[in-house]
Amino acid sequence: GSNKYMARDKIDAISNRDAFTESDLEGIEKIATQIPSEALNRLLDKVHSIVRDIDDEQIHEAWLCQDRQSNYDAVESITHCVFSVIERSAESLQEQPEKLAEAIAIHLNSTSPVLNHLIAKVLKCYPTSEADTVVGWLLAAPKKRLNCGNTYVEPEWVLPSELIEKFSPYCSEDFFLKLEDRIYNYTPNRA
Predict the structure, then answer these.
(1) Would you state the torsion angle of the CA atoms of residues 115, 121, 13, 58, taken in this order, to the nearest 10 degrees?
(2) What is the DSSP secondary-structure string of 135-179?
(3) pTM
């Protein structure tokens, strides 16, 4: 329908509008250190506004594909640039977990593979004192979130396994047992 067409236009507009050289990307990433909270909030909101109504898995995969850096091409997509600024902003806010929580709060229930991937990247920056929050997020939609890595960069389970490695030793016993059960009964698909 027309709604799907408009969503594709939005994605194409932000994904293919410009290309950036590696030095351009380095300059843009300075935003992540100078105004990390504002950059994180605005960019997550922008990505969410584009992908929230899209059911087409191929479109989400196209976004994740455009996030990977190419060793053969000096030009990067705006998608990679946006994802990099989100990740660097979260890293800059590691000592301010309340700002990280504020930035992702309205996105935590998203079913979008793109947003789940970005939320997982932000959650990697959480302190271990927030282990129940992170493990609870993984368990809330395990079929999607235990597979939220970018398959164009690494296997889909690598990113969630980094969260599990960091946070599972610090989560409550109840969450740990639920996580253990999910991992033992893991089936690799996002459906």
Answers:
(1) -60
(2) HHHHHHSHHHHTT-S-TTTS-TTHHHHHHHHHHGGGS-HHHHHHH
(3) 0.80
